[in-house]
Amino acid sequence: MRHSGAVPPSVPPPAPDASPASGVGRAEAWFAWPTRSAGWEQRQGSLDAHERRRLDALVEPTTARAYAVLHLLARDVLGQVVGCRPDQLVVDRTCARCGEQHGPPRLVGHPDLHVSLTRTTDLVAVAVSTDAPVGIDAERVAGTRFEGFDGVAMHPSERSPDLDDRARAVSWVRKEAALKALGTGFVVDPAALTTPLAGRTGLVLPDRSPVTVVDVPLGDSDHVAALALAAAYGRVDITTHEAPDA
Ligand SMILES: CC(C)(COP(=O)(O)OP(=O)(O)OC[C@H]1O[C@@H](n2cnc3c(N)ncnc32)[C@H](O)[C@@H]1OP(=O)(O)O)[C@@H](O)C(=O)NCCC(=O)NCCS
């Protein structure tokens, strides 16, 4: 998989440019396919108590598998990056709004290592960057195919019957990646935002850092993914990896 700044033709105009963008922002992203991951049940011991509680609470088997595969992948990746065993990593998820453990993940002891996670039932991803806060999102293209999607997700100026499922999904992942990089998630109404333009810095939220979003090409036409860095870069280079099937 390679990085590309290509803009799907049917995605509407970007959020306004923020400040001058310069330099190259770098990030790495690891993808795994839970449907191909057979060995996760034997590896649950690497998860921390919070992750095991959340896993136990997920009754739908494909959702539980995706959760486990994502968090095991995150521990493998972060363990390699910082040089320690996956089960020794301490992850803090304090929510900035309420203090509960459901916010963006941070690796304790490594404040300059930015991390983001995403999961669907059949594709999960982990992104890391030491350059700037990072956000990643992946979605099933077919997941946008429901009555009312445009009202929930698309800015009024972008709603059009001419948009296809892929364009809607691309818009969604770019917004979600940007809002994850900013650490807010969907406390911000996605329909209040226009779609960030891939490869361009934009001011997604007026009172926050500018964000640079890029599409992440996948070897799979059923999903789309985007990655964002919360900084004004002239270019974002992503190195992508596919986790070996386990
Ligand atoms: C972040 C968010 C957009 C992700 O939504 P999603 O499409 O269901 O899930 P994804 O699989 O793409 O991403 C989930 C991951 O995002 C991360 N995440 C959670 N909150 C985050 C935030 N504010 N910023 C960045 N990342 C966040 C977590 O690592 C989470 O993984 P986990 O649940 O498996 O541990 C959504 O959970 C959200 O909007 N959260 C904020 C809501 C909030 O703050 N409410 C106020 C509570 S007091």
Automatic annotation (TrEMBL):
InterPro entries: 4-PPantetheinyl_Trfase_dom, 4-PPantetheinyl_Trfase_dom_sf. SUPFAM superfamilies: 4'-phosphopantetheinyl transferase (SSF56214). This is 4'-phosphopantetheinyl transferase. Residues 1-23 are annotated as: Disordered. Keywords: Transferase. The keyword Transferase applies. It comes from Humibacillus xanthopallidus. Residues 133-192 form the 4'-phosphopantetheinyl transferase domain. GO terms for molecular function: holo-[acyl-carrier-protein] synthase activity; magnesium ion binding.
